[in-house]
What does this fold into?
Amino acid sequence: MKKTIFLDVVVFLFVVLFLYASTSKILDFETFSAQIGKSPLIMRYPKFIAFSVPAIEILISILLLIPRLQVVGFFMSYTLMLLFTLYIAFILLFSPYVPCSCGGVLQSMGWGAHLVFNIAFVLLAVVGIVLVNRREAAQTSDQFVNHLTPIIK
It folds into this structure.
């Protein structure tokens, strides 16, 4: 029961994060796209990235809300958050220019805090993957036992 509640909280945190972030990017699309265009790592693809990142964040939110697709949503969450984390680390370590393409509350975070925030969400995605896999294993086990019960009787 506690694992189910914790899993629901993790799903909620990711859905809020991704819907908030995607909405911020969409509402201030021109600024988001312009900031991406200034990034030394991804400056060649600003329009593609500006369109695809919010779309991916919305897609992940939808996947996380569908129980049978949650594991896919968590793997995508892990991948996206890991990419964001690596991007921030690269910018902090190697870039003379530090662009800011975050919106809303996340924009007020310093880059160090943002890095810690992202690492925490990478770890939460791993926890989500583990919990969903355990839930699915338990459901499979229960189905197997329920299937065998009439045969044994």
User: Anything to note?
Assistant: The longest helix spans residues 111-152. The chain has one domain: 2-152. Residues 37 and 54 are 16 Å apart (CA to CA).
